[in-house]
Amino acid sequence: MLSDTIRVVLVHTTHAGNIGGVARAMKNMGLTRLTLVKPQGHPSPEAQWRAASALDVLAHAQVVDTVEAAITDAQFVVGASARERRIPWPVQDARHCGKRIVSHANAGEQVAILFGREDRGLLNEELQLCNLHCHIPSHESYPSLNLAMAVQIVAYEVRMALLGDSLPVEQDANWDTPFAKNVDMLRFYDHLEQTLIDIEFLDPEAPRQLMRRLRRLFNRVRLDEMELNILRGVLSEMQKRLTEKLRK
Amino acid sequence: MLSDTIRVVLVHTTHAGNIGGVARAMKNMGLTRLTLVKPQGHPSPEAQWRAASALDVLAHAQVVDTVEAAITDAQFVVGASARERRIPWPVQDARHCGKRIVSHANAGEQVAILFGREDRGLLNEELQLCNLHCHIPSHESYPSLNLAMAVQIVAYEVRMALLGDSLPVEQDANWDTPFAKNVDMLRFYDHLEQTLIDIEFLDPEAPRQLMRRLRRLFNRVRLDEMELNILRGVLSEMQKRLTEKLRK
Q: What is the DSSP string of chain B?
């Protein structure tokens, strides 16, 4: 069931009423799983009013403290992104994101779609948790959509894809190993960063864009669990060799 | 100009705030011409608040008494329709309607898109003024969209059609660095393999599938030149540390 597999995550929503608008937009398109990261003023009567007949989605919304907690078990993470980024990230328009999302959900993967604050969207560090950024091609005269409207369009594209417009994702067809969960990716990045410091490739006083570029690389490819184990093994072995040599 | 050619017509809107939401949804998608048939409570502060930076669309909205007056000069009229009708009418989903609308507009025709009351939609006699009915394929568990949401989706489909429904290439659009050449990838794989042997992670006598899996990984992602340089730098640094420690 898609409703178990695809979740919408609202990050630091400031206008509580929008949460109700999102709940309705989701249910209109057959999505029911909503996660709220530190929402302001939730629950609220205005959200209930705007949810209309989607009160069930609102009532079952999960509330968590961090984005990481919202996507711990997610294997494919899409982030709604309006702005141009200094480091480009893989980005597709809402239509293609809808197709990708349905392909991954159909493959049994946990999918999360992140939407940011009303005024500032997702922060860079949140966008860096994503495998793919989703862009709604709005008009340059006024590109900023209301939060619930943005959810409506992406949810609509998910539904359209589900109704038979989905693209098979090439690399995932008959893949031999499950794709890594977000929480394991975060552990890998910590391990990678520490190893790069140990071998003095990364200066923690002047990190520049190094980790950001490496995160982009590995989020772009989506590591499977065996690949993740191989890379963790390489890092552990590097650290072990350094310690051994030091001891001698 | 599409903004002169395509108008959105709201028929007997009862919640004045929705008019503001519609204005914003339109401008977000590049539409600016709004006609209101006997709107209740217009103008209103709530509409202004919801219009946000689309106050110009709201301010220039034309107010008329009848649907006929709103579409006098229209040459192609589309009506948003949720319900099954007793007499079947030509009906297409929002995606196809968006394409039809743009085709007619490109041919220089005046196009009107009608949206009905929040509670009952367009009446049969209003739907019979239309050339085409537009259906948003919402989920059967809760098919009724908020008025501004419905306008958002149709306006979005108009914009997508206008943009030519083009396929953006995922990660290559506006990428900041050229992608690595194959010859450099081969050098990288040699360097990687040697380093894995140096740190005793890879046993050349029993290599198993290790390099094959790593090649698959890095070929899947397509490294750009800067990423390749970073990874080569990590490998070199690792080798350097090993040699240093050995010498001591």
A: -HHHHEEEEEES---HHHHHHHHHHHHHTT--EEEEES-TT-S-HHHHHHHGGGHHHHHT-EEES-HHHHTTT-SEEEEE--S--SS---EEEHHHHHHHHHHHHHTT--EEEEE-BTTTBS-HHHHTT-SEEEE----TTS----HHHHHHHHHHHHHHHHTTT----TTTTT-SSPBPPHHHHHHHHHHHHHHHHHTTSS-TTS-TTHHHHHHHHHHHH--BHHHHHHHHHHHHHHHHHHHHHHH-
